Amino acid sequence: MTRTSSRTLLRALAVAAGIAIAGSAAALDSIKMMIPANPGGGWDTTGRELGKALLASGAVKNVQYDNKGGAAGAIGLAQFVSASKGDPNALMMGGMVMVGGTIQNKSAVTMDQVTPIARLTSEYEVIVVPAASPIKDMKDLMAKFKANPGSISWGGGSAGGTDHILAGLLAKEVGIEPGKVNYVPFKGGGEAVAAIIGGHVSVGVSGLSEFAQHIQSGKMRALAVSSAGAIGKIPSLKEQGFKVELANWRGIFGAPGISKAQQAELVKAVEMATKHKSWDETLKKQDWTNFWQPGDEYGAFVKSEIARIGEILAGLNLGKK
């Protein structure tokens, strides 16, 4: 090798090393993640699993968490907006339930005020009946519901939540006023499961993972899922003639007032995390569906959800008409 070519090679190696160093330096030093819910729930699990993936992928060097539950996320949202304005290292978990929470609580702080970073996951709802129920399928259920709405009691999570919204959408689909849905809210999953298996409500509604073991054991019979197509052996609502699809989505937001460049940096970090094997393992373990949508596309989706869910909640007499 000539002296000239040696110098050229050394120069190239130096440039390559500089790029590598610059790449590692691009990792965010620290992220403060607001989780607007108590420990142990869906947002908490999603946020902490995302934090693990951010660290494992090298996108972030340190992650701190702050749980602030209450009012379906509206309390945490208000604190995040007031305390984190302009902070490029602040993130907040959120999702469909927060949309309903801000509408129901007539919150002065809304999801329009935070910066959309990425939609992450979705979990579809399942409609079940007790094993001994005379209701055999969705057509049977909806025929009984249409004939006498009050005779069918729908058991699920909090009023105005995803479960209640699905019941309202089904009512609307068959020409029933959503406000006529006989909805029985339960504070926790265990309470709901006991009521459904015991036949104290006609129908149960929840995220698929919540009821999966009871379906598998034969204590509940699954009638439909709210996805576009079947999941396993459970047919979708659409496949049975009901044009209803609903995903309980979760996503991540940045602080108000950050720049486009700062938003793009956070999107890149989160995308890097979701491409890491640890995130794939989380999706499989939690039975979540990848629902990726970045930045301003996600922001447009959130705006459409605010309008859609507001209309549904108004029909359920839970939102501002």
List unreliable stretches of 5+ residues. Answer: 1-25
CATH class of the largest domain: Alpha Beta
- Major beta sheet, specifics? 10 strands, mixed
Dominant shape: globular
Q: Count the beta strands.
A: 10
Oligomer: single chain
CATH H-tier superfamily of the largest domain: Bordetella uptake gene, domain 1
* Number of domain units: 2
Note the gap between the termini. Answer: 80 Å
Number of helices: 11
CA gyration radius, whole angstroms: 23 Å
CATH topology of the largest domain: D-Maltodextrin-Binding Protein, domain 2
How much helicity do the residues have?
Answer: 40-55%
Secondary-structure-based class equals alpha/beta
Mean pLDDT: 89
Strand content: 15-25%
Helices and strands, in N-to-C order?
HEHEHEHEHEHEHEHEEHHEH
The CATH architecture of the largest domain would be 3-Layer(aba) Sandwich
Describe the overall structure:
With 321 residues, the chain is of the alpha/beta class. The protein folds into two domains: 10-122 and 249-315, Bordetella uptake gene, domain 1 (D-Maltodextrin-Binding Protein, domain 2, 3-Layer(aba) Sandwich); 123-240, Periplasmic binding protein-like II (D-Maltodextrin-Binding Protein, domain 2), CATH 3.40.190. The protein is 45% helix and 20% strand. The chain has eleven helices and ten strands. It has helices at residues 3-25, 42-57, 74-83, 96-104, 138-147, 162-173, 189-197, 208-217, 260-274, 277-286, 295-315, and strands spanning 31-35, 63-67, 90-95, 115-130, 153-156, 182-185, 203-207, 220-225, 247-254, 289-294. Strands 1, 2, 3, 4, 5, 6, 7, 8, 9 and 10 form a ten-stranded mixed β-sheet that branches. Helix 6 (162-173) links the parallel strand 5 and strand 6. Mean pLDDT is 89; it is low at 1-25.
